[in-house]
UniProtKB/TrEMBL annotation:
Top-level division of the source organism's lineage: Bacteria
Gene: purC
Pfam families: SAICAR_synt (PF01259)
EC code(s) of this entry: 6.3.2.6
Annotated SAICAR synthetase/ADE2 N-terminal domain residues: 7-231
Family, per entry: Belongs to the SAICAR synthetase family.
Coiled-coil spans in chain: none
Protein name: Phosphoribosylaminoimidazole-succinocarboxamide synthase
Length: 237
């Protein structure tokens, strides 16, 4: 496999073509952004930590039967992934109230959500990723009804696996965002799972261990991401 030209460069990751039309290289950069790209910073080692973190979590999900685009680690900050036709919808699950849910509905941060909520957002920077529902997705052709059903089923399956995984490390998986794509007619998990795209709290102290450390200037961002990984059984040596 040979790495070729860059296909797309996002806020924190870049996608490269390869000599195999079915495979892409996903590069995790040290760039960090929040608030629709208004706050930006380079955080040393972030690309490496998130690449390893994502590989670890994708492996756990694959073991549990969740289809993912992840193939294998290529280098400290690069992974080989299968090319998906991405569905422009973000699926967000919340087990505990935080972030935009609290702002939108006036719910106090930290309230346990039982059952967990499931929300859809349109991936569109210019519109600031507005919340949508399944009817919008179907009417405007972003996803077909059977795909929406599969995205919801897989997102809940991911929740079962990851809630247990984080709890075993004495952490709470507060919320997270997933993205899916199509591969040979199947709905497959794409993008990444790292502390950049979820909220994780220490179970006892409720210390924030995710990108809120960057958003809220709490410090020790990458050191804390590494602590999350270590508690899940990873090593970053
Ligand atoms: O901002 P909000 O509270 O809606 O985010 C819910 C979860 O989804 C958070 O864990 C956040 O990091 C993640 N998210 C994301 N990318 C987005 C929107 C939300 O990773 N574009």
């Amino acid at each position: 496999m040979e790495k070729r030209d860059v296909l797309y460069s996002g806020k924190a990751k870049s996608v490269f073509l390869t000599d195999d039309p079915d495979l892409y290289v996903l590069q995790f950069r040290d760039d960090t952004s929040a608030f629709d790209g208004e706050k930006k910073q380079q955080l040393a080692r972030k690309g490496m930590v998130n690449n390893r973190f994502n590989a670890f979590v994708m492996g756990k999900l694959a073991d549990a039967g969740v289809p993912t685009h992840f193939e294998r680690l290529l280098s400290p900050s690069e992974s080989l992934v299968r090319r998906l036709e991405m569905i422009p919808v973000e699926c967000v699950v919340r087990n505990v109230a935080a972030g935009s849910l609290c702002r939108r509905l006036g719910i106090e941060e930290g309230r346990e959500l039982n059952p967990s909520t499931y929300e859809l957002f349109l991936k569109n920077d210019a519109l600031h990723d507005p919340m949508i529902n399944e009817s919008h997705a179907e009417t405007f052709g972003w996803a077909a009804p059977h795909e929406l059903a599969e995205m919801k089923r897989l997102t809940h399956q991911v929740n079962d696996v990851l809630q247990r995984l984080f709890l075993a490390g004495d952490m709470i998986l507060v919320d997270y965002k997933l993205e899916f794509g199509r591969y040979n007619g199947r709905v497959v998990l794409g993008d990444e799972f790292s502390p950049d795209g979820c909220r994780i709290w220490d179970r006892k102290t409720r210390k924030k261990m995710d990108k809120d450390r960057f958003r809220q200037d709490l410090g020790d961002v990458i050191e804390t991401y590494e602590e999350v990984g270590r508690r899940l059984g990873m090593s970053f040596d």
